[in-house]
Each structure stands twice: as C-alpha cells, then as structure tokens.
Amino acid sequence: MSPSAVVDAYPEAVDIQVKEIHAKVLKKSHEDELREKSSKYILSSGAGYSKEIITAAEGMHFYTASGHKVLDWTSGQMSCLLGHGHPEIVKVITQNAIHLDHLFSGMISPPVISLAERLCTSLPNGLDKAFFLSTGGESNEAAIKLAKSYTGKFEIVGLGASWHGMTGAALSAQYHYGRKGNGPMMPGTHMLPSPNAYRSVFRRPDGSYDWEAELEYGWRMIDMASCGSLAACIVECIQSSGGMHVLPPGYLKALKKHCEARGMLLIVDEAQTGVGRCGDFMAINHEGVVPDILTLSKAFGNGLPLSAVVTSEKIESVAKERDFMFYTTHLNDPLPAAVGDKVLEIVLRDKLVDKVRENGKVLHDGLNKLKSRYGCIGDVRGRGLLAGVEIVSDPVLKTPGLELAKKIGDRAYELGIWANLSSHPSFGVFSEWHRPSRCRRSS
After folding, report:
1. Pfam families recorded for this chain (predicted)?
2. Which end of the chain has the smaller Cβ count within 10 Å, N or C?
3. How far apart are CA 40 and CA 38, in angstroms?
C-alpha cells in the first residue's frame, strides 16, 4: 500500500484525534508543573509569554489547560486564515509528512511548481517568478537583497511604525520595536513618516489629513540625507502591527512614482494583508499598483512557516547575471509549499475574498457603532477582516488609554475573546483583530 493510500484509508483518523484533545483538561498540579518548566527552560523572546498553557486549537478557538475556550481573534500569530485544524490542510500536511516533506534546497518538487504557478497566475503581470522561504522576515531580507543586486545600490527606505521582521536588513528597514540594544543598524536606511490620519500634524485648512504634503516632506528629508544610492522602498498597504494604519487612497501610486523618479524598486510586504484577508486577493489589487517585488507570509501558510518572494522576469534575469544568492535550509520545501497551494486553492475556489468583503463590512459597521457609543474608542481602522480600534482616555485630546486598554483586554479574555493589544508612540494604544476568513465548525 502506498503512503497516500494509507492516509486515504483512514480519512477520519486525524479528525478523531484532534477532537479528543479538546476534552483534555490538565490537573492543576500538572499545569503548575508545566508553568515552572516553562519559566526554567524557555528563553525569553523579549515580548513576554502568556501565563496560560494552551493545549489545543480548532476552528476559531483555542483551549487552555484549565479548560477555558477562547475565541482566537488574532488567528494565532495573524496566520490561521482558514482557522485552526482545517480538514483539507490537515490532510495535505499528513500526506506530505509521509512521502514528501523536505529536500535538498537545490531540488524542485511538484508541490513547489504547483504553488508557484497558482500564485503567479493569480497575481498581476509583472509578478512572474517566485521562490518560497519560511518567515516574513526571511522573505523581506531576500527582497531587500534582490533589490540591491538589481539596482546596484544599497540605501533602503521604510515607513515609520512599520514591521518587516527581526533579521538584519528587515529590522533595519522597520521603525517599530526591536531596534534598540543591537548596535548599529544596516547602513543607509531612511524613514518616511507613517501615514497616520488620526494623529498626523500634516493638516489642510479644513483639518483633513494632508498625506500628500507629508509624503513630499518625507522624501525631501530623505533626498537630503541620501548619499545617492537609493535602492528600494519597502511598505505595507496596512500597517497592522504599527497600529492598523491604512495607506490613504492614491498613496501607494504616489510612492511608486517617487521610487521610479529615483531609480528605486518598490517592495510591498503583504504578510498580514495578503491572500484575501482585506477583501481583495492582495491589498495591491485594491490600490491598483504592481510593485517590483511582493513578499508574502503568515496567512499564506495558514499557520505553517511559509513565505514567498515574487518579482518580474526582468528583475530575476538581471539579478541572476549579478550573482544574486539567497540560499537557505528550507528554500522551496515541499511540505509547506503543498499547504500554501491548498490555501490558495481554497481561497479562490470558495470565493473567500467576496465573503471577507461582506463580513468585513459587518465587522467595521459594528466597530463604528461601538465608537459612537463609547468615547474610549478614538478611531476604527483597517479593511476587510483586518481591523482594530485605538483606545483613548480623552477623545478630544486623543490621550492614549493604556490602563483602560489593558482592562478591556483582560475583561475580554475573561469572557473568552483573545485580541492583540499594542502600544507605540506613533499610535498610542491599539487593540487589533485578524479574523479567520473561514474555519470548519467546532463540535
């Protein structure tokens, strides 16, 4: 019997095992023991860990060792687009774990070819070639290196409050947490102001947000600081980790014109906006802009480590001539590629983008109703099922409401809702949601 036949012969086996786990509640003594071991053996990441021990996850929920069932409004680490334990994803993982999991990085397999074809044919012309890595930081690192190789230049521009990863070039091009305590950042990095319509000081006479003046001012500062070697600008269409700042209509087109005028490439990081979550297949579709390089991660693998770098045949050809190299242990691994291919298949087949657009309207209408009802909600931001609210203690002065936000978050968790609480000088205090686009029904 072939490995795939083994899986097909027991189609219910995986589901049964997953459902049995959910009834498993640990004894308090065992839970306390696990907490002690966690404190003793797990290295701090700098962000802090939850005190809860999570024993299972299914659909839109996760379960704690004490039996608490919690609605997972962040989709794990903003990644489980289709929910936890989606049966089609489980089957693909099982099949590939049995017969095609990992290969030498220079080898190509059918799942990788299928994913590359499905992805590139679903994207606008000019995004023609892709390879696959593990994390968003890794894909942005590769994209920045690719841009430097193609242009022969080295300076990189990022936006304030951006988040692109924890690796060298990606970290240097972001202006969020993680920059301190590591010595010098990558040379030649510059920052544009974050397009924050709620707090920006750039205003027209009528009080509306003047993003054009802000963008022009930012580029003037960069032109003065640059040594004449501007290679690329990397940007998110919605700065999710940075406070859910949505690029104003026309911003990305203007940004691309600025890049073209300086001989730079435009890199768009769709880690948190791609694969349908915002009501378009990609956020660039909403903007009507084709970047020179596109990166994907998070939802792309529905929780598995999978990312992508996509670019044009021209950029690939020139970079290849200039000996561009980005070679990793898990480059084009077949197992995560098979999962990514299945994710795209489900999103396109089941028309999830349309459903996200419909449900996103309901979500945002509801959040705006709450805003009109409660003065502590200063602003509602996002698009589709990527959304959040800014918590303030004074709606007139827009004073960040850190203590209040923490109380709201703690109370929500008590009631069985998990949402991410962020704070940063550029946006105050923010609670964000990354709702799954679809999940199987929990039993």
Report:
1. Aminotran_3 (PF00202)
2. N
3. 5
